[in-house]
Amino acid sequence: MPTMRSAEYDARFRAAAFAWLSTRSDDGAPMVTREELLSFCFEGERIPLIDHNRGIRRPKVLRGAVSLLTTYRPSPQAAPYEDAFGEDGLLRYKYRSTDPQQADNRAVRGSMEDRLPMIWFYGIAQSQYLAIFPVYAVAEEATGHQFVVSTDVPVESIAQAPPSVLEREYRAVQTYRRVHQPVFRARVMHAYERRCAMCRLAHPSLLDAAHIRRDKHPMGIPAVSNGMALCKIHHAAYDQDILGVRPDLKVEVRLDILHEVDGPMLRHGLQEMAGVRLEVPRSRVQRPDPSAIEERYTQFTAANR
Question: Structural domain boundaries of the chain?
């Protein structure tokens, strides 16, 4: 039976896990498979970074939880993060069961009390995860059966008093940059097979995950059905209403751009997009939401009258 090791061993293990994840970069984002996480080895010993059927992982040799996991859900009705983002700009992670003394919940509490850094694995596709690290459990909300998780600072830096407006905004921006944005991008890139939906460009470093309903829209959820993989020029043109997408998923180009005379970038990059049909994901639930496409197209036509 494995026994709990020293605090120094615990620190070495977490540092090694972070270093390994940093090498698993996919265009700057640490992407890993379930098999890789279950096969992780440290100092000659296999110590998985996730559990087979639990969201909280605490190896017996460690002093607290090492990871949290959010399962992949393809349906836009189960949109990511809607239960995990508090008004204070910090994330929430639900207990396992509602019993605060359940072993996995005690493990997260142990990491919180000892100020131990953890990893949050977000499901991008079936058995594929994006790793966000380090994250810290900074508080517990027993009535909500959840822990408060920071992606920016450890527990000692979180004030006990209610955060100011500026603090909430700062935390929200940090969480968006470190969690929402990369998870949304990774899910969209996977669904669109890392190709621009308009021109088929297949260089991930030149692609963006574009929102159909903008992320500040009340219904601008970070779900694949509200996104498209677009190369940077087509993303910018879409956001500026130079390009629009009709309800039949064909691209429309602003009239003055169609009649403009310039160099090959204008001709091939924009004008020749007129009438091109979007290449969309194979999975129906990941294809662009028709109501979002129609709403955004209405905005495009209104802007170009």
Answer: 7-189, 192-303
φ, ψ dihedrals at 236, nearest 5°: -65, -40
pTM of the model: 0.86
As to burial, measured by CB atoms within 10 angstroms (0-12 exposed, 13-18 middle, 19+ buried), residue 43 is exposed
Which two tokens mark 1? 């039976």
| Separation in Å, CA 71 to CA 34, 249, 286 | 11, 30, 16
What are the tens digits of pLDDT across the range 92-106?
999 998 899 999 999
Q: List Cα–Cα distances, 125 to 52, 140, 193, 224, in angstroms.
A: 17, 29, 12, 11
- In this prediction, the residues of the chain whose per-residue pLDDT falls under 70 are 1-2, 75-83, 153-162
Cβ-proximal residues to 203 (8 Å cutoff; 6+ apart), any chain: none
C-alpha–C-alpha distance, residues 233 and 16, integer Å: 39
By the 8 A CB rule, do 285 and 74 touch?
A: yes
Contact 110, 63 (CB under 8 A): yes
4: CB partners within 8 A, 6+ apart = 60, 61, 62, 63
